[in-house]
Amino acid sequence: MPAQPLNAAAPKWKDLSPAERQVLAPFSPEYDQWEAQRRLKWRGIAQRYPSMAPDQQQRVQQQMRAWAELTPDQRRVAREQYKSLKSLPPEKKQEVTQKWHEYQNLPPETKRELAAKAPPPTAVRPAAPGSPVPASRPPSPAAGASSVPVGAPAGTAPEASAAPAPLVTPPLPAATKTGSP
After folding, report:
1. How far is residue 167's CA from residue 154's CA, in Å, rounded to a whole number?
2. What is the spatial distance between Cα 22 and Cα 25, in angstroms, rounded to a whole number?
3. pTM > 0.70: yes or no
4. Has residue 39 been placed in a domain?
5. Which domain holds residue 26?
6. Fewer CB atoms near the end CB (10 Å): N or C, the chain?
7. pLDDT for residue 16
8. In this structure, is residue 171 part of a structural domain?
9. Tell me, what DSSP letter sits at residue 30?
10. Domains in the chain: how many in total?
């Protein structure tokens, strides 16, 4: 069955087929509160689900369950991190991907040890002279905050998946002339 066009009416939960409801079960409590575009997107995924390879189906289900368990605040942070990772230059994206793969290949006990550690403090970058700085600007994930892909197991060690935070040296005060040369 093809995915619905975006201009089609977004169905309510009760209007989905039993197969679609089964696939989207982790989202059942909130599905009807979503905007139409999101409902259509997930309905399309549910319609493609039967044609996916078993490993893809398993991955989709794991990611949906993980996302459904997040609080609204955690979801907001995940979206912000995704956007910031998407805007990284290709070489930084590759570095983050490599670190994530390295983390994935660690033995489970090492992952648990890393997850138990407190995350490192986030580096604060001083503003460039003359640039406006918002009063309450959240730290940028690209500046060293953790970035764990959606669908990553709960409690994964963010420090193992993100590029290390750059060391920041505060700017030195301008030199003053005290005498003639």
Report:
1. 28
2. 5
3. no
4. yes
5. 1-69
6. C
7. 95
8. no
9. T
10. 1
